[in-house]
Amino acid sequence: MQLTDQGILQIEKDDLSTLYCYRDRDGMDFDASFLFELQLQELSLPPGSVTAIRFNFEAEEEPLYDERERLVTEVQSAVRTVDPQYDGSIVG
Length: 92
What we know:
By secondary structure, the protein is α/β, with parallel strands linked by helices. Helices cover 43% and strands 15% of the residues. The protein contains three helices and four strands, in the order ββααβαβ. The protein has helices spanning 13-26, 30-40, 68-82; strands at residues 2-3, 8-12, 52-56, 90-91. The protein has a four-stranded mixed β-sheet with strand order 1-2-3-4. Strand 1 and strand 2 form a beta hairpin. Helix 1 (13-26) crosses helix 2 and helix 2 (30-40) crosses helix 3 (68-82). It is globular, with a radius of gyration of 12 Å.
């Protein structure tokens, strides 16, 4: 994960795989997994810092996340736990 100067939180395929691994292997809920990964990556998301989320994976990888709507909702919820001012925006 990376936060750009424009406030776009870029999430890679590997980030998502890690978050789901914590959930499936360790029984952590998605929000807790997200917070844990932020700490591991030493990434700070102070209130007002995230303007949008961008999922950085190729179109052919998208079927791996066949429940895209659920994925987006889980990530948005997790971001709001650390940045309550995040408005839910997603960029392509």
